[in-house]
Each structure stands twice: as C-alpha cells, then as structure tokens.
Amino acid sequence: MVRLFVARLAPFAVTLLSFGLNPPSALSQIVYPFETIQEYQATLVPIERNISKATNIGINVDAPYGLTDFVSTNYNELNPNTGVINVSPDPATFGLKNLPFGLVTFFGSTSDKLFGSISATGLLDFQNLVGNVLGTITITGGEGKFSGATGSLTFVENNTFTPDRDPTAPINGRAFVKGSIVAPTKVSESETTTALVGFGLIGAITLLRRHKDSILP
Fold first, then answer.
1. Which of 36, 94, 192, 212 has its CA 20 to 30 A from that of 176?
2. Whole-model pTM?
C-alpha cells in the first residue's frame, strides 16, 4: 500500500524537480531616463511646392547609454504665408505616395540602438530670422539592451537663419531632448521556483507520513 502511494507521488516529485532545474523566466521592464542636447545639420530636398524631405545628422552631447550619434529622416510642409511648419514621418500626411516612412536612429560605439520617428510643429519667423519647433520622438524599438523598447521623448528646437542663406544649404540646429524609454528584460525566477519546489517536497513528505500513520496499527 505504501509502495503504491509512493509510486503515485513519484511523478509529482519528478515534475517539481524538473521545474527547479529549468526555472522559467519572466519579462520585467527597465525604465531608462533620457536627456541630451542634439547638435546637427539638416539637409532639405524639395519634393513638391512647400514640401521637402529633411535628413538630420548629428551628435547627442553628453549622451546617455553611449548613444552618441543620431540620424533621422522626415517630411516637412511649410506655409510661406504664416511661417508654420509641420513635420511628420509619414509622407502620406502631405499627400505624398511611394516614399519611405521617416525614421530616427540613436546609436554609438556599441551594439545598442534606438529606433523611432519624429512628429513636430513649429514657427519660422523670417523677419527676425529665427525658428522654434516643438516635437515628439516616439520610440518604437531598438537593438541590444533596447530590444523591444518603447517610449516618448519631447524636444525643443531652436534655429537661426542668415539673410543670405542658400535655401539648399544645410541648416545647423540645436535641440533639447528629454523623456524616458522602457525596455523589457528577462528575469530568472530561480529563487521563487526553489521556494515552490521546497514547499512541494515538504507537502509530499507530510502526505507520505500521514499515509503511513493511517495504515499502521
């Protein structure tokens, strides 16, 4: 009778042992605060009247997490009467077809990268030769420790123009960027698993002792 009871407990013990030797992993999240000053050159390529494609290449001053460089592409539409400029990563926003979606990439000397897109609006004051743009960088992924990252970074951009500037010449810009990034990470549950296995074995031994006591005279 005892042997039969032990035989019934054996699969349970094997399952607990297997569970302990192969602890599952859980997805946790790490929040990375992000703040930097971007200095860059923007090159504009006219596409249609008042619409252009912008390519920004620059550096992140005092960059966090080794993300010292960035490159971005997006589409701009400028209203020459009001000076209002709208920026979008989606060319369809301005009725453009068969053009690639805009992208921003943060990178550095390591394998860690961040991917996202830029949306913004601003005002260019041609009389005083200054421009101010407010926008959002939406993080949609990454590589290395930022694999699967999401987040939102806001930025304030200030530009100064010169009266004789060539419209096709690169524009020097400076932006203040701040926000946070959330990236998933795997965390071993070995400690929790060990505790569960221990409780399970204790319970099995207790049941076995009770069973033996119940059949002994």
1. 94
2. 0.73
